[in-house]
């Protein structure tokens, strides 16, 4: 067993909690897509932000992602199966920037800006406009 100091254990625990929360967020995106939420959001007049894991759609492009193997494992073993419930699209949390942008555009957002934020290097933030 690997020994870690208390601060490292707490940091690791917080990081794992964050990852699971982001998996839940992506599950919510899959449900929103299936339920037509993006079409409703497209009717809003003001910008609507959302976030997703900072990754690419292509696995090859994620080969150097520092948490890639772990994120793909969580995505495959949890997010994807849950996203397939009741005929869902099963995106998983590693759907990637390119797929997220395509889905948002397909839902009717004419302008989708992808922004990186220094205080949140783990995610990409999408600002969507009609």
Please characterize this protein's 3D structure.
This protein has one domain. The model has no long low-confidence stretch (mean pLDDT 80). It has helices spanning 6-35, 37-42, 68-83, 96-106; strands spanning 48-53, 111-117, 120-129. The N and C termini lie far apart (52 Å). With 130 residues, the protein is α+β, with helices and mostly antiparallel strands. The longest helix is centred in the first third of the chain and has 30 residues, at 6-35. A three-stranded antiparallel β-sheet has the order 1-3-2.
Number of helices: 4
Rg, rounded, reads 16 Å
- Total strands: 3
Query: Which stretches of 5+ consecutive residues score pLDDT under 50?
Result: none
Helix fraction by DSSP (H/I, runs of at least 4): 40-55%
Distance between the termini: 52 Å
Structural class: alpha+beta
Looking at the structure, what is the overall shape? globular
Largest beta-sheet characterization = 3 strands, antiparallel
Hey, roughly how much beta strand do the residues contain? Answer: 15-25%
């Amino acid at each position: 067993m690997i020994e870690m100091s208390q601060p490292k254990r707490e940091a690791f625990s917080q990081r794992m909690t964050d990852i699971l929360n982001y998996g839940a967020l992506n599950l919510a995106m899959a449900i929103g897509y299936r339920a037509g939420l993006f079409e409703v959001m497209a009717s809003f007049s003001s910008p609507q932000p959302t976030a997703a894991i900072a990754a690419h759609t292509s696995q090859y492009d994620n080969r150097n992602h520092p948490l890639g193997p772990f994120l793909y494992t969580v995505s495959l073993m949890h997010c994807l199966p849950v996203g397939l419930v009741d005929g869902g699209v099963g995106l998983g949390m590693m759907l990637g920037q390119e797929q997220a942008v395509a889905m948002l555009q397909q839902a009717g957002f004419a302008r989708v800006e992808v922004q990186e934020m220094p205080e949140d290097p783990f995610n990409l933030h999408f600002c969507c406009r009609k």
